[in-house]
């Protein structure tokens, strides 16, 4: 895994954008995109740029079950607001949180990913080492699935809602197997609260207890961390 340590999340977002921009100029057509506070600085750079996205397809990692696309807490809404409204794509896929048959819908989403192989996948990481909503204990070989959110994730995400009870209890989420099939992966993590998860991901054993640790097996992963998120890493990673 290649590790890039930046001064702060502003520089981290600029670095991540450089990688996406170069990848797109080199021919990447399908991007796996992510939501949350972490990618915001990347999207800020993206919308300010002159990058044309009209030939690109995006596939998002996840969506809450039960939220409509116009709900301000939905990941559909997040993507519209932070990227798609300002940079129209040829086609964008975000899981349908209102799907009636969630299990059947997950299979459809796997099919979408199969038909549109992801060239560059963006990821964040949770404090417990989750990637997307793949929580500790999730099998590594799983495709798109419905996830019951853990108490910790509900608590962490409640900052975006009026109170914890309003946080949906489950989500539709790409599995670790989908993520590992991407040609290239860019994972961003900022702040000291992510420091332990970052260390476990890079230096710890590969274990389903730390879902992000599977990335050690991927041939092309770039991790962009600020100094705070890098603080527990071995010195050899601190460039
Ligand atoms: P955050 O979430 O970007 O809001 O910190 C990342 C994650 O939990 O994957």
Automatic annotation (TrEMBL):
So what EC number does this one have?
3.5.99.6
User: Glucosamine/galactosamine-6-phosphate isomerase domain spans which residues?
Assistant: 25-218
Instruction: Set out the biological process GO terms recorded for this chain's protein.
Output: carbohydrate metabolic process; glucosamine catabolic process; N-acetylglucosamine catabolic process; N-acetylneuraminate catabolic process
Q: Which PROSITE patterns match?
A: GLC_GALNAC_ISOMERASE
In which pathway does this enzyme or protein participate?
A: Amino-sugar metabolism; N-acetylneuraminate degradation; D-fructose 6-phosphate from N-acetylneuraminate: step 5/5
The GO terms this record gives for MF are: glucosamine-6-phosphate deaminase activity; identical protein binding
Q: Which residues form the active site?
A: 62 (proton acceptor), 128 (for ring-opening step), 130 (proton acceptor), 135 (for ring-opening step)
Please give the GO cellular component terms listed in this UniProt entry.
cytoplasm
What's the catalysed reaction?
A: alpha-D-glucosamine 6-phosphate + H2O = beta-D-fructose 6-phosphate + NH4(+)
Q: Which UniProt keywords apply?
A: Carbohydrate metabolism, Hydrolase
Q: Which HAMAP family match?
A: GlcN6P_deamin (MF_01241)
Described by its record, this protein's role is as follows: Catalyzes the reversible isomerization-deamination of glucosamine 6-phosphate (GlcN6P) to form fructose 6-phosphate (Fru6P) and ammonium ion.
Matching entries from NCBIfam families are given as: nagB
Family to which this protein belongs: Belongs to the glucosamine/galactosamine-6-phosphate isomerase family. NagB subfamily.
Name of the protein this chain belongs to: Glucosamine-6-phosphate deaminase
Lineage, top ranks = Bacteria, Bacillati, Bacillota, Bacilli, Lactobacillales
Gene name in the database record: nagB
């Amino acid at each position: 895994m290649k590790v890039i340590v930046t001064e702060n999340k502003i520089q981290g977002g600029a670095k991540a954008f450089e990688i996406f921009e170069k990848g797109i100029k080199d021919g990447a057509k399908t991007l796996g995109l992510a939501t949350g506070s972490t990618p915001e600085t990347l999207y800020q750079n993206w919308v300010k740029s002159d990058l044309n996205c009209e030939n690109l397809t995006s596939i998002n990692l996840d969506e809450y079950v039960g939220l409509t696309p116009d709900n301000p807490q939905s990941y559909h809404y997040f993507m519209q607001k932070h990227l798609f409204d300002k940079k129209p794509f040829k086609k964008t896929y975000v899981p349908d949180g209102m799907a009636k048959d969630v299990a059947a819908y997950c299979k459809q989403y796997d099919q979408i990913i199969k038909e549109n192989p992801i060239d560059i996948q963006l990821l964040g990481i949770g404090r417990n080492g989750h990637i997307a909503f793949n929580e500790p204990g999730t099998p590594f070989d799983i495709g798109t699935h419905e996830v019951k959110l853990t108490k910790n994730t509900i608590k962490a995400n409640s900052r975006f809602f009026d109170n914890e009870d309003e946080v949906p209890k489950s989500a539709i989420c790409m599995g670790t197997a989908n993520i590992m099939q991407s040609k290239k992966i860019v994972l961003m993590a900022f702040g000291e609260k992510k420091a332990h998860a970052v260390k476990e991901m890079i230096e710890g054993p590969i274990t389903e207890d730390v879902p992000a640790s599977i990335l050690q097996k991927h041939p092309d992963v770039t991790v962009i961390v600020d100094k705070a998120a890098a603080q527990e890493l071995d010195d050899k990673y601190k460039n």
